[in-house]
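Before relying on records like the one below, remember that each one covers exactly one chain. Contacts with other chains, cofactors or solvent are not represented anywhere in the record.
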Amino acid sequence: MCIRDRYQRRVHGIYIMIGRVGLRAKFLNMNIVAQAMRFSVADQKFAQGRKISKLQVDTANEFPWPQQRLIEKHWQEIQEKKPMPTFMKTFFKNREIYDDLNILYREFHQWCALPDDEGLSVLCEQRLAKKLSKTIRQIHLKGMGIEMANLTVKQPVLEILSYDVSRNLHVDRSKNGKEKDYQVVDDSVFGIGLKCKAYTRKEDDKSHPLDVLDYMHKPYLLRIKTMISSPMHLYLYFKDELGLSEHHQNDPSILTTNIVQFEINIKGSEFMRILPLELKPPLLRDWRITDFNDILKGNNLFQEQMTKLL
């Protein structure tokens, strides 16, 4: 069933959108117009009028809704950050990275709204997928649900806040072990001088110089943190017999802003594919979303204890 059909079938439900963060955006001159992640006073009164319990509110707030504090923090980083090097700017553009991230961002909204645990496990790193699936399941068990509005293929604003490259680490944290097992040195991607952190296991290092000949050997982990603003957004609804709530805002001119972290394992040669040619192997299905609105505090790269977050 498509999102539109599900939306029409729920026209008799009450829809409440939590934590809308609007961004009237021009890439160089942005004005942040934000609301807090938690229920506002008006939201709380509305919830009380509909007999929405505090337990339901607390459960709903486990989901990574947009946060004013987080956006303001990264907005400050945008003001202070140095211009991106021309090489990386060309790489992101000609390697169609922006197109890939747009697709992942849209699919993330769709899988959360369906919901689809299998889709989330393919799209997200396993820690994030488990956290989201658990939270969405609890939201539904409490008589609520998550829906999306204003499906958007290309987001109006997709700003890369930061990026970094590591060698010999994997997107799947379970394959990395513990940080203390590694020796870390400053290094660069072979042939292009791009700075990276090289992680070498202190014991049982299975790497080999001929690994570079293996097509499936992808030792470089590229991590990108982005600020994405779009009319597409997720919101919470409560089942009720009173019809569609006026509290739900569906104005496509208001952009919702999220801080999203993406990661991918690639070969060193991929960084050299910067010419605007069509015949390049796609990277789309190798990307993973590893954090969304800081729900995992950046999602530590290693197999450390994160019980409080998970």
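Residues 161 and 226 are 5 Å apart (CA to CA).
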